[in-house]
Amino acid sequence: MGTWKTKNSNKKKKVSYISVPAQIINSVSSSSLQSFLDNKSSSKFFFNLRNPKLWAFSLFLLSILGISLRLGLCLSSGVHESQLQSSDSNGSPKSHLGFAYSRSNTTQVEISNAKDRSLDTGVEKNETFGGDQSHLITSSGNVHDDKNYEFWKQPDGLGYKPCLDFSIEYRRESKKIVAERRKYLMVVVSGGLNQQKIQIVDAVVIARILGAVLVVPILQINLIWGDESEFSDIFDLEQFKSVLVNDVKIVSLLPASKVMTRPSEDGSMPFNASPQWIRSHYLKRFNREGVLLLRRFDSRLSKDLPSDLQKLRCKVAFEALKFSPRVLDMGTKLAERMRSKGPYIALHLRMEKDVWVRTGCLSGLSSKYDEIVNIERIKRPELLTAKSSMTSNERKLAGLCPLNAKEVTRLLRALGAPRDARIYWAGGEPLGGKEALKPLTSEFPHLYNKYDIALPLELKPFAKRASIMAAIDYIVCKESDVFMASHGGNMGHAIQGHRAYEGHKKIITPNKRHMLPYFVNSSMTKTEFEKMIKKLHRQSLGQPELRISKAGRDVTKYPVPECMCNQSNTTI
C-alpha cells in the first residue's frame, strides 16, 4: 500500500490512498519517487484525482498493469524452474552412488553435520555425497504413479497396536521381586549382536522366573571379530534399567557382600526349558551360594511361555533394549540420508563365504567359487549345519539356501520395485566381492551400504566393533520403507518382529520353496512370471500373523496376539 500526500495552502492537510501493486512500488527508486512527488505537475495530477471519473479510470489502468506484471513474473519463474530441472537432469555431476550434486542453495537438503558431538570432531565431507558439496539434491523420482505406489504401499495392520497389560497376579508378584536382595543372576552372552539380544531377553525372563536380581549381562569377547564391546557400548544401560524397574531389579555389579562368593556355574540348560524346569534346577543353588552364573543358554528357554512372560519378552526386546545414544544417532543419520531422496528398500544379504559353507549351498557365481566353498567344507565338516544327505541343488529347491544377488534382483523386479529405487544393503563381504553384487547393481544402480553413505571418519570410532556396526545396519534396515532378508537368520527375524511391533511395516518374506521352480522355468513369459511371483507373496508382505498358529514361534518375531491388541476385535 503506498501513501502519497497532497498539500493545499488554504486547507488542512489531507491524505489520499491508492492501492498500487508491489512490483510498481519496488521498481521505483526512492530518489525518483521523491523527484516525482516534488514535481508541480504531479501536484495537479493528485488534485485532479478528486474527479470521480478520473479516479476510477486511474484505478482501472493500474489494475491492468498489476495483473500484467504478475503474469509476467509467474511465466518467468516457470521458465526458470524448467531450466533448473533440465540442468539437474542433464548437467549436474553425479557420484557413483547416484546422488546428484547441488549448486543451488534453494534445492539443497542438508546431510548430517560432520562435527557431531558424539563422533570424532575431525570428520570430513564425504566425496561420495558431493565432494566439496555438503548437500544432496532431493529426489526427482515420482513414486505416486500407480505402479510404484503399489510396491511402496504398506500392509494393512488391522488396527493392531502394542499392549503390554500384565495380569494382576504378575503386578502383585513384582513388588516382592524388585525388592529382592539375596539372589543374584549373572549371565555371559555370546555370538553376534542379534544372538546377544536373544540371550539378554531370555536372561531377563529367567531372572523373573527365579525372582532374582539380574546383574548387567557380560558380553563375551568375540574371538572371530575381536570385538571387546561392553553392554553400555552397544545398549542404553539406563533405559534398560528404568523400563524394567517394575519387572526385574537390575544392578551393574554384584554388591560387596557377594563379590567374594564363588558363583554356582551352569552351562547345561536343555532346549525348550520350561519355567518349571528352571525353578526346579536353579532355586536350590541360589539358596546355597546366592549367585548363579549361566553360560551357553542361547535359544534354550521355551518359546511357549505363560502370557505375562511373553509380554515381558516383548517389553525387553522392543522397549528396554534400545541402542546407546551414539549408536542410535549414527544409525538414524544414515537412515535419514537414505530417505532424503524418498522411500528406500533395505536388504539383509547373506552371501558371505562362511554362509555358503555352513548351509551346504553354492553361490551360483562360477565353478571357481563353488570349488572354494567345497574345499572349505571338506576341511571343516563341523560347519555344515544343513542336512548333509542333500545335494546343494536339493537344498536350494527345498528353500534352505540363501538367495544370491541374481535371485534377489529377479524377485524385487517381479514384485514391482522401480529401477530407480534406492537400496541399502547390510551384511558381510560377499563371496566374490563386487562381482557377486553385479546382478543387483546392473538392475538397481542406486545400491549403497553404510560405508557408501557415511562421511569420512564417521565410522572410525566403531571400526573394530562388529556388534556396533551390526547395530547401525539394524537401525537403517528397521527404518526402511520395505525390508527383505535373503536368508532368515537372527537379524532378519529380529527386524521382522520389530517392524511388526511398530505398526506392521512392509517386509518381503521370500517364499523360496515355492518360487524357485519358476526361476528355472524358461517357458514362462515375463508377464506370467511376475504374476505368479506376486501371487505367491500376496500374504508374505508383513501382514499381522498369529504366533500361536504354529508351535514354537518366537513372540519377538510374531508379537500378535500376546504383545499387540486389536481394539476393533478384527480377526486375521
Radius of gyration: 33 Å
Oligomer: single chain
Q: Percentage of helical residues?
A: 40-55%
Shape: globular
- Structural class by secondary-structure content: alpha/beta
Overall pLDDT confidence: 80
Task: Kindly describe this structure.
Belongs to the glycosyltransferase GT106 family. GO terms for molecular function: glycosyltransferase activity. Pathway: Glycan metabolism. Its main location: membrane. One of its GO terms (biological process) is fucose metabolic process. With 572 residues, the chain is an alpha/beta fold. Among the domains are: 168-320, Rossmann fold (3-Layer(aba) Sandwich), CATH 3.40.50; 325-566, no CATH class. It has 23 helices and 17 strands. The strands form five sheets. Strands 6, 7, 8, 9, 10 and 11 form a six-stranded parallel beta sheet that branches. Strands 14-13-12-15-16 form a five-stranded parallel beta sheet. A two-stranded antiparallel ribbon has the order 1-2. Helix 21 links the parallel strand 15 and strand 16 (507-508). Helix 9 runs antiparallel to helix 12 and helix 13 (325-339) crosses helix 20 (466-478). The chain is globular, with a radius of gyration of 33 Å. Residues 1-49 and 73-144 have low confidence and may be disordered.
Supply the key terms.
572 residues; alpha/beta; Rossmann fold; six-stranded parallel beta sheet; five-stranded parallel beta sheet; 23 helices; 17 strands; disordered N terminus; glycosyltransferase activity; transmembrane helix; O-fucosyltransferase family protein; membrane
Topology:
Elements: E1 2-6, E2 14-18, H1 22-27, H2 30-38, H3 40-48, H4 52-90, E3 108-110, E4 135-137, H5 146-152, E5 160-162, H6 168-177, E6 184-189, H7 193-210, E7 213-215, E8 218-219, H8 231-234, H9 237-243, E9 250-251, H10 256-259, E10 264-266, H11 275-289, E11 291-294, H12 307-320, H13 325-339, E12 344-348, H14 353-359, H15 367-379, H16 392-397, H17 405-414, E13 422-426, H18 434-443, E14 447-448, H19 450-453, H20 466-478, E15 482-485, H21 489-501, E16 507-508, H22 512-519, H23 526-536, E17 564-566
Parallel strand pairs: 6-7, 6-8, 6-11, 7-9, 10-11, 12-13, 12-15, 13-14, 15-16
Antiparallel strand pairs: 1-2, 3-4, 5-17
Helix pairs in contact: 7-12, 9-12, 13-20, 14-15, 17-18, 22-23
